[in-house]
UniProtKB/TrEMBL annotation:
Belongs to the MetA family. Transfers an acetyl group from acetyl-CoA to L-homoserine, forming acetyl-L-homoserine. The active site is at 142 (acyl-thioester intermediate), 235 (proton acceptor), 237. This is Homoserine O-acetyltransferase. Its EC number is 2.3.1.31. GO terms for molecular function: homoserine O-acetyltransferase activity; homoserine O-succinyltransferase activity. The record marks 111 as: Important for acyl-CoA specificity. Pfam families: HTS. GO terms for biological process: L-methionine biosynthetic process from homoserine via O-succinyl-L-homoserine and cystathionine. Keywords: Acyltransferase, Amino-acid biosynthesis, Cytoplasm, Methionine biosynthesis, Transferase. It is an enzyme of class 2 (transferase). The record marks 192 as: Important for substrate specificity.
Length: 321
């Protein structure tokens, strides 16, 4: 089934041209089923690109999903048209009384700053605290994962010797987990970051489950034991050319940057990159939506925060859709 989005969202035409089924608000009004309600806090400066990347991954499921986009009002976005924000984004004060089946908190290019130096950090803390009672399951991506681990569990990020950029092989530590259902024993994911989290710091925290690591990129995926919070340190949603565009941008800035690893054929940036992560990326988002949102969220969305579904517990929500 399709993903429900605003009729005039720029991603709509892009996705339809890729033969991806999306549902406009007008068409969805004539259906008598409850869609999943999903909130995306988009912290990336390239708002439309990130919207499209995430919607592409969320759309290929047998579920109808109603998506809202959230922005931080304590930060002035400089790389997106204000009309776009006014048309498609809401503020926390306007939705904090609501409940959501799922939420995604994206990365942000602020990892070299201390958390407290990020201008919207207090607002982000308020939002992350709110998710504990108003969101059934939250997926944190890259810097969003680092921020969530620091806020919820006191795990601080560490500075890497140099930027980690490229496509890296990962091992599945929990092959029985529905999160990795359909995965191969190893899979590829793009990474692009200057900071990370240490495996030993995660293993010290009761209530966290480490699910996937990479020999080169380190920790990739972990979650809370109650399945309410997921953290991934890479960018499985990246397009084929995202790392190439980031590399060209950094070179133009005169930064001392290495060619993204395992990305260009023979590490030659003059050649088109080879995509090796798309299928597993699709599975990751589909599995999270299906097994940890759709299968366990209460049918009465207003009771989110009152339920206590643990690892491996499922209700009959699916029978109501």
């Amino acid at each position: 089934m399709p993903i429900k989005i605003a009729d005039s969202l720029p991603a709509k035409d892009i996705l339809e041209n890729e033969n991806i089924f999306v549902m406009t608000e007008y068409r969805a009004m004539h259906q008598d089923i409850r869609p999943l309600k999903l909130l995306i806090l988009n912290l990336m400066p390239t708002k439309i690109i990130t919207e499209t990347q995430l919607l592409r991954k969320l759309s290929n499921t047998p579920l109808q999903i109603e998506v809202e986009f959230l922005q931080t009002i304590s930060h002035e976005a400089k790389n997106v048209n204000t009309e776009h924000l006014a048309s498609f984004y809401t503020a926390f004060d306007k939705i904090k009384h609501k409940h959501y089946d799922g939420m995604i908190i994206t990365g942000a290019p602020v990892e070299n700053l201390d958390f407290s130096d990020v201008d919207y950090w207090p607002e982000l803390c308020d939002i992350m605290a709110w998710t504990s009672h108003n969101v059934h399951s939250t997926l944190h991506i890259c810097w969003g994962a680092q921020a969530g681990l620091y806020y919820h569990y006191g795990i601080n990020k560490v500075q890497l010797p140099k930027k980690l950029s490229g496509v890296f092989s990962h091992n599945v530590l929990k092959p029985q987990s529905p999160f990795f259902r359909g995965f191969d024993d190893t899979f590829s994911v793009p990474h692009s970051r200057y900071t990370g989290v240490l495996e030993e710091d995660i293993l010290k925290v009761h209530g966290l489950e480490l699910m996937s690591v990479s020999g080169e990129a380190g920790v990739f995926a972990l979650k809370s034991e109650d399945n309410r919070r997921f953290f991934i340190t890479g960018h499985p949603e990246y397009d084929a050319d995202t790392l190439a565009l980031e590399y060209a941008r950094d070179v133009k800035k005169g930064l001392e940057i290495e060619v993204p690893k395992n990305y260009f054929p023979n590490d030659d940036p003059t050649r088109p990159p080879m995509v090796t992560w798309r299928a597993h990326a699709q599975l990751l988002y589909t599995n999270w939506l299906n097994y940890y949102v759709y299968q366990t969220t209460p049918y009465n969305i207003d009771t989110i925060g009152d339920e206590a579904f643990g690892a491996g517990e499922f209700n009959n929500y699916g029978s109501g859709i």
